[in-house]
Amino acid sequence: MFRNSWFICLIRPIAWIVFLFPIMVGFYLGASKDTSPVSVIFWFGALFFVLCFGFSVNALGDVDVDMYHDGRSKDMNLSSQPLVTGEISMLQAKLLCLFFLVGSLLCALLVGFYFVLTIIILDVIGYVYSLPPFRMKKRPIGDILCNALLGVFFFLAGITIGNASVNPLLVITVFLVASNFYITTVITDYEFDKKAGLRTSAVVYGGKRLINGMYVLTATICIFGIALILSASFEVQIIAVIIIIYTPIFTLITKNRLLGNQLLLHKNWILIPFGCLTFVFFCLGVFKIVA
Ligand code: GPP
Ligand code: MG
Hints:
By secondary structure, the chain is mainly alpha-helical. It has helices spanning 6-11, 17-30, 37-61, 63-66, 82-85, 90-109, 113-130, 142-159, 168-188, 190-195, 201-231, 234-256, 268-290, and strands at residues 258-259, 262-263. The longest helix is centred in the last third of the chain and has 31 residues, at 201-231. The termini are far apart.
């Protein structure tokens, strides 16, 4: 059967979709006719390198976990990661990570101060999430917080393509939405994280309690969404409507697919809607620049 190259397996571009969505929402809000096409190219470059960095350090830190993966609920079977199969050495992977890190910073420097700041924060969270001594992915709640912050800072990195002001209510909503969606991914990893001895939120609290957490988050997200619809600009209202419609649907689907601690949720429940919306917001952002 067709198998992707070791490089694609290391950087996992399909999994990027979860982060490309907040990036493109930010891009849509931030883009304007004052945005220079050259800065858009370096902006894309920096984000490309941050994503390569985040996923490569994750692979570096997860060799002991990924070997147990059976291919379920993820963009790929993680047991065919090049570090697990031995296609590349730890040293080669570390050098690549360094290259991605430097690439992200150099490209960001050509865009602007606030963008550099978000890129540095994203690189730091990527490291802290995956690698010791912090390795937040194995700390209950810490794993959810890190991913929620990644969602927020990818969104802010998107906005900094222009000079648009940041709506604090929307930033909190992005944080809550990212937490809600991340919870499902940590439940789907329950079995193989447990086998590897990790103490993730799902391993410590169990699926049922995390679903209860999702109910609270979903209700809060809807309240914030309504507040945004009542108070924010038309562009933000569109985003709030999408969030209010899809979050409760997604939470209910997740609840119905939970069997004990096992969540049988197909990855496409996240990848397809996020992928389509990413494309739509990218087109809208480009339209704002060229129109
Ligand atoms: C997902 O890996 C990887 C991340 C959430 C880190 C991304 C960081 C960036 C700065 C882009 P996974 O699918 O292997 O899951 P896990 O979180 O269990 O490692
Ligand atoms: Mg991993």
